[in-house]
Structure of Ion-translocating oxidoreductase complex subunit G:
Amino acid sequence: MTFHFNRENTTTHAIILGIFCLGFGIFLALTEWVTRDSIATRAMEDRQNSLGQVMPAEIHDNNPVLDTLMMQDDEGHDITVYRARKAGLVTGVAYETFGSGYAGQMKFMIGVDAEGRLLGVRVLSHKETPGLGDKIETKKGDWILQFTGLSLGNPPVEKWKVKKDGGQFDQFTGATITPRGTVKAIRRGLEFFDAHRAQLLEIN
């Protein structure tokens, strides 16, 4: 069997393929350019919505989404701190805190006022079991609302555990790991505030 190598056809195919790849690349670039602003706008709206649930409107006259501070927590997570101000003074902050659940990492947004009290807690992401561990979501129950108004001293630090571990907080029926990880994440968030209070509140 004899194979005939046709250099002209190979070159033509290479040119066509190159033109196709170039055109596809240009199309992707144009799509990204056209949608960039709308994606950024939606991202900001989502962030404002999350912040609005843990940072009451009455405590600020600024836009916390635009008043940020980049920091790192004790576990090495890069976090963005959103600051609420009224008449120029920091009245509260909000930032992410992380916990380990039954199915992996859980991420929360917490709001803390200038006195160290929780303004609110909301779950941002998790992979917990539907119908069981997902009770940390407000749309599935009000369990996570119980933390509003609490602080490291209320209850005492040693009581920041689920009842099964000798703490104050209820676990879910048939599920302990998720609430245990959630309580621990919130406590860590409050400890972060306590350790960095001066920087967060801009106290000289």
About this structure: The chain is about 35% helix and 20% strand. The longest helix spans residues 7-54. The mean pLDDT is 86. The two ends are 87 Å apart (CA to CA).
